[in-house]
Design a protein that fits this description.
The complex is a heterodimer of chains A (about 180) and B (about 130). With about 180 residues, chain A is α+β, with helices and mostly antiparallel strands. Helices cover about 50% and strands about 25% of the residues of chain A. Chain B contains three helices and six strands, in the order E-E-E-H-E-H-E-H-E. Classes of the chains: A alpha+beta (about 180), B alpha/beta (about 130). At the A-B interface, helix 2, helix 3, helix 5 and helix 6 of A face helix 2 and helix 3 of B.
Chain lengths: ~180, ~130
Amino acid sequence: MEEFDNQSLFNLHRSIIEEHMDFLYKGNITTDVVNILLEIVKKKFSEFKIDYSLQKRIYNIAVECLENVCDHGLSGGDIDSIFLIGKLDGIFFIGTGNIINKDVTNSLESSLNKINALDREGLKLIYKETIAQQLESDSNDVGLGLIDIALKANNKIDYQIKPVNDTQDFFSFQVKINTQV
Amino acid sequence: MEVLDLEGTSYTPKVVFDLKNKVFEITGDSRPEDTHAFYQVLIDWLSNLDGPSVSGELKFKFAFDYLNSSSSKFIFKLISCLKDLESKDINFYIDWYYDEPDIDMKELGEEYAELVGIKINLISVEI
């Protein structure tokens, strides 16, 4: 393995800037880490000087994204997760990447495709139905969080699933947060 | 009934259910690590309210700064429990506070009213 020298650090810094990332975290995303990352997201709001309504939506999306990784992603060893927030041409984006077991890939893909096929009114309807339908469910269902993200972002969810090995995939997820609702 | 008094944290709301002083409030952020465990305590408390022991009108105040999607399911459950108080002849009303620019929070209050079939007063707070 090549030594990580100052040139590598320079390249990494340049690459982060070129990709318009404002904050990037790589590591295990546990409940404690989620709390720390959300504090950082809140601090970014004053830096970005964005209005209250957009702050609320970005925070909301950050929570749901991080909780999805925390609750459904695999962690540990060399399969750390990533979380990033950035801004390009005035549009904020939030991204996550994490390892998932292949046995959840199909249901996750199906939920995301269903959500992406709906317009805003359709999303609102399915959000209401999901809250009421899951009255007896105690599980942290991934569906409602994803619907909430699509609604708050007012945009489609961009995702990619790449195989890592026979049993695991890498799930990358990105959402651009429309400044208009 | 015993007073339910939970201090708020950065991820759980402050809760006061006090029958003697007629204070019923949930305020702050809601994204508990175990949403079910957190809200079941509140649901159990409400379910144990006994009609004959309650006099006057009860005012329930919901004032969330933020709530995650998992919490929104349990708040639906909680408001459904409030609806059940009608059959115990307990008089109550619900005030749902939202920060004036926070249209999503306002709409959530409207959605609960529609889904549960209950009147919810929407109260805008200037920030």
